[in-house]
Design a protein that fits this description.
The chain is an alpha/beta fold. The protein has three domains: 241 residues, Aminohydrolase, N-terminal nucleophile (Ntn) domain (Glutamine Phosphoribosylpyrophosphate, subunit 1, domain 1), CATH 3.60.20.10; 186 residues, Rossmann fold (3-Layer(aba) Sandwich), CATH 3.40.50; 145 residues, 3-Layer(aba) Sandwich (Rossmann fold). 36% of the residues lie in helices and 23% in strands. It has an eight-stranded antiparallel beta sheet, with helices on one face. Strand 2 and strand 3 form a beta hairpin. Helix 8 packs parallel to helix 14, helix 10 runs parallel beside helix 14 and helix 16 packs parallel to helix 20. 54% of the residues are buried. Bound molecules: 2-deoxy-2-amino glucitol-6-phosphate (AGP). The site of 2-deoxy-2-amino glucitol-6-phosphate has 15 residues, from helix 10.
Amino acid sequence: MCGIVGYIGKGNAQEIILDGLEKLEYRGYDSAGIAIINKSGLKTRKKVGRLSNLANDLKGDPINGDVGIGHTRWATHGAPSDVNSHPHTNMSGSIAVVHNGIIENYRSIKEELVGLGYSFKSETDTEVVAHLIDYYYSGDLLEAVFKAEDRLKGAYALAVIAKDNPDEIVAIRHESPLILGIGEGEYFVASDIPAILKYTNKMVYLENKDTIRLTRNGYKVYGPDRMEVKRDINTIMWDVEAASKEGFEHFMLKEIYQQPKAIDETLFRRLDDDGNIYLENIKITKEDLNNIDRIYIVGCGTAYHAGLIGRYLFQTFLKVNTITDIASEFRYNEHYIDERTLVVVVSQSGETLDTLTALKDAREKGARILSITNVVGSSVSRESNDVFYTWAGPEIAVASTKAYTTQLVAFYMLALHFGRLKGTLEDECYDEILEELKGLSQKVQLTLESVNESSKEVANKIKDNHSLFYLGRGLDYNTALEGALKLKEISYIHTEAFPAGELKHGTIALIEEGTPVIAIATQQGLYDKMVSNIKEVKARGAFVIGVTRHRNRDLEQVCDYTIFIEESFNIFMPLLSVIFPQLLSYHTSLIKGNDVDKPRNLAKSVTVE
Ligand code: AGP
């Protein structure tokens, strides 16, 4: 997810665009750039890193002008660098493009353009668009953009300016969001409301496949059939802060509700034309897999919990001994690591020092490193042999949610792909499981809708407790661990997760009248044992919240509160059962008046040991 801004009018384009990009940094902050047209032509400036790097550069050497475009990047193709930053231009620098989304067929177009004599500077998909517009350009920028759009496949929002068309901006909304802002004799285009709300609250939400042409005197909108259309003008009543959360009160809640989309983004962009998994960045072959006799999965916190699910999947589908370890402990534990070892490193930020240190330790011992991370070009990704990027978009809230569920999707896809490649997973099993995986985002959406109110009610019941227990067996225990971490890190209630079968070996001594216990009971085959464990704690006075499948209506007779979630295969239930713990921790933190997005003592990325 990236942020784009365009401006044309009588104001200072650089100032307005930089201000807009700052409001869009939550969409990505790997690099930023700006292109402005003035009397001396089209000027472009771009810098890797936070927007402040670009702003400081421009402070000393500003670009004057009143028409321009800008971009803040969340890298997907091409690591963060000056040259990979947007705007991208044609070879003469007379056309500049900023882009949010992914051009799926950029490779074939790039090959065609190279054959026509075009030379490329960057590794990005976006640069293809600049040269393609150049190829079709013969003075009419709108026409050239239309012709280029006819060749592009993927999800994208574009804004384009040209030196020889100094009085216009052309922009397209094609799946990725784009908004038109209408000022007094000035016009804006942006990925999201916050970028331009300071200058106008009159906005047009462009519809999919709309194209706009902005000039100093007005704008025109062209529908998917390229005919001029009228679109409603909306008056926005939000303030800027609220807008960047897209109407949600906190980034955490927004990111919880982004999970269905994040899951689909991570999954569907890695399916080939036959609907099978296609992992272009993963170069592990059948021979490599046959040579791997041990797998370690390493991470911290939530990333570690995702690894616990991954461990089960690799053991089951790959038939390889898989050990999961906490990154900060990994280097102290005697591990048998050599060239036959695969180490899977999980890290949303890709900058967690404990995880990075574990990675380097394993690599020095000869292991092959596969990382799962959400940040292109992060330290973890740069130190790995293979990288599986989750495409969850920036995760701003300290409490990790959409990163976790997309890490699970990564493990499902890797286990399916490797199992079939190695021949330890039958094709029909592969097909059946992948088919179910493709429908999971809808089940996550249904679960979000069905458990939100219950999570508020339970939050009100537990908010004053000083301790709480999560219980589960098998994969449900892993979900219990993740639920406990979520609750303690933002509600500050001391929460522990225990294997339900372990209670009788000591912990049950802590259960007394009113002790809240959340029992995750979704695993078929373990349900009856879980019911027994729930009865054990109930007998000692616990207040029990059960989380189970719709079919297990009988659990209502046993628990004080029962949360029913959508049904799926056992292996997919962690993706569904984690929704309630996420929402519960959010609402509990909110009720307690905590800083939900920035809880005390914590940072989003822990870059110290
Ligand atoms: C999760 O909610 C926590 N914020 C924390 O445990 C986090 O998962 C951990 O610090 C690892 O971060 P990473 O995924 O960026 O490496």
